[in-house]
Amino acid sequence: MKIKTFVLMWLRRFKTMVRYRLLVLTSVPIFLTLLTLIAITFYWTVTYTWQNALMNVKADLAVAHHSMVLLKKEQRMELQALANSYDFQRRLRSDDIKLRQWVHQQNQQYQLDFVVLHSVEDIGMFSASEQRLLRAGKDQTFFQVLDRRALFELNHDLPARAQLPLLQEGTIEQKGLVSRSLVPIFNQQGELKWILDGGILLNNSTSLVDRIRDLVYAADTLPKGSLGTVTLFMGDVRISTNVPLDSANLIGRAVGTRVSKEVQQQVLQQGNTFVDRAFVYDSWYVSAYEPLHGNDGTVVGMLYTGYLQWPLIERYLTNIIEMSVSILLVLLLTSIIVYRGARDLFLPIEKIYQVAKAVQMGLKKRVGKLDLCDGHELQILGEQFDSMLDQLEQRNGLIKLAAIELEEKVEQRTQSLHHKTEELEQHIRLLHQARSKLVATEKLAALGELTAGIAHEVNNPIAVILGNIELIQLELGDDTVDVQDELTAIHLQIDRIRNITRSLLQYSRQGGVQDEVTWHYLNLIVEESLTLVRSGTKKMDVQFEVNLAAKCSVEVNRHQLLQVLVNLQMNGIHAMDDKGLLKITTSDWVDDHGETLGAMVAITDHGCGISEHNMKRIFDPFFTTRRSGTGLGLSVSQSIVANVGGEITVESIEGQGSTFIVYLKHKKESPSELDLLVTV
């Protein structure tokens, strides 16, 4: 009975008293909203966290894949560097047996596990597709699984290094996964003569997977306590990994263990990429696998990246707990504020209700006429407030609408003025740049006319020289053997002069030097330029100090760059009055962030130097301080270097000497928008 009376009392209060009704009507929506927010937050957090984890590990796999692509590219470039080296080319023309022995000893110098030179008669050892690419003169790099005998033929040390104890089976894996590159070598008649075979063994290559892991999982990129791992598989066997044997204590490496059946079926058998949680040896990891294909398209292994799943779950649970506690505290605080606010706000209204009840009882108290329904004490007060609020809302709405329209107009005008100002500044900047380009273009146009005349005039005596050389060879017959090297050198220099005149004609016709641009190592071109300069300065008292340290290849035209280097070196020798020390230094071109942009060569003389007045004009066409000079060397050199995206700088102290530095990009840059505008 008491319980029924208590319930009826509170029901009557909720129906007749505003304070309790407002408390319920405000608290229940807040409570339901917070519960809904908690549910949505839990669902969104779970979904987003897991999807984000999968996207991250997929991005990690992409970085690891790119690292393997770069590894294959570096490996192929090492073999190409060996093939293009002076020692290789010299031995190639002398003794085949010594050449093979010498090549077999170069693996350490070129950071390869094996380097072998095969004769063209051994081409049958390669597949049909590999033979077709070799005969077409194309390099190739691919993954390949080799047995113990094949590894021994490449390098006697490889079989021992490739052995992998299979921990769960008690046997030893004898095969090895190699990254192999083939470079064809042709003779002077264009026939395939040799096949340069080199690569690295991926079995037990802990330094490689650790390097990729450090690149993929940099410091502070994973949750605290997590572990980023990278693995190379041969088939389903881990041959190189930093997955620990004990994930809890981070002990050992799980080399010689196999991948799970689910991953094996999806990646090795179906050739698909696997991105999901996977059990890796002794713990669950957020994992990503992709197949490694051989040269024939078959799957020979896998590349894996992943990190421990538990730290991610632990961090997620911690966030959920913290969020839940925060929401509950907010709910408690909100309930207290609503209750206190309702009680303090409606106590005066309850007093008005009591006065109205007293007036109904005949007392002398007056608060105005209250037209109330049964149990509702705010009817008249509500009507009054509703009327006032409607009027105020209507007026406020008109004021706000006018204010919004005014703000939109001001904002539109401000944005329009800002855009116009930016466009004007951009046009002024482009006009200034275009004016500078036009001045340079007018100078180069005059240079083009002059170079065209020079090129046509030089071609006539060259034709006479070539005809006489061919006549000498015809008359001497077999006696040309004694001077064959000299005649070959003359033919090479005639070809070089023809290339130069052809470049001059292209320069005069199209406003810039255009020729074949390919990849070259800067040191080789510098050495060739030194050979030419030394041969022309034998009677001069000139000493050369050479330091060639550049490793990065550059994309240039070899003949044109050779012309630039010879011109700069001869300018330095002339500045020293044909005697003194000329320094030539090469190094990699590195920016402020340590990224390699290309290579650079510095040519330093100890001559008369360049005055500050002449420093601004040295690259202008026809400007020279020598009586016998034409003033075209530096201008043409600057055009050649600029055409491949490089630049030439000069530092000089009058009376002490000058240093010209040529910066060359690793990859040639496309012409800028402003250059195209000026050309039009």
From TrEMBL:
<dbReference type="InterPro" id="IPR005467">
    <property type="entry name" value="His_kinase_dom"/>
</dbReference>
<dbReference type="InterPro" id="IPR003661">
    <property type="entry name" value="HisK_dim/P_dom"/>
</dbReference>
<keyword id="KW-1133">Transmembrane helix</keyword>
<dbReference type="GO" id="GO:0000155">
    <property type="term" value="F:phosphorelay sensor kinase activity"/>
</dbReference>
<dbReference type="InterPro" id="IPR036097">
    <property type="entry name" value="HisK_dim/P_sf"/>
</dbReference>
<dbReference type="InterPro" id="IPR033463">
    <property type="entry name" value="sCache_3"/>
</dbReference>
<dbReference type="GO" id="GO:0005886">
    <property type="term" value="C:plasma membrane"/>
</dbReference>
<keyword id="KW-0812">Transmembrane</keyword>
<dbReference type="Pfam" id="PF02518">
    <property type="entry name" value="HATPase_c"/>
</dbReference>
<dbReference type="Pfam" id="PF00512">
    <property type="entry name" value="HisKA"/>
</dbReference>
<dbReference type="InterPro" id="IPR003594">
    <property type="entry name" value="HATPase_dom"/>
</dbReference>
<feature type="domain" description="Histidine kinase">
    <location>
        <begin position="453"/>
        <end position="668"/>
    </location>
</feature>
<keyword id="KW-0808">Transferase</keyword>
<dbReference type="InterPro" id="IPR036890">
    <property type="entry name" value="HATPase_C_sf"/>
</dbReference>
<feature type="transmembrane region" description="Helical">
    <location>
        <begin position="20"/>
        <end position="44"/>
    </location>
</feature>
<keyword id="KW-0597">Phosphoprotein</keyword>
<keyword id="KW-1003">Cell membrane</keyword>
<dbReference type="Pfam" id="PF17202">
    <property type="entry name" value="sCache_3_3"/>
</dbReference>
<dbReference type="InterPro" id="IPR029151">
    <property type="entry name" value="Sensor-like_sf"/>
</dbReference>
<keyword id="KW-0472">Membrane</keyword>
<protein>
    <recommendedName>
        <fullName>histidine kinase</fullName>
        <ecNumber>2.7.13.3</ecNumber>
    </recommendedName>
</protein>
<dbReference type="InterPro" id="IPR004358">
    <property type="entry name" value="Sig_transdc_His_kin-like_C"/>
</dbReference>
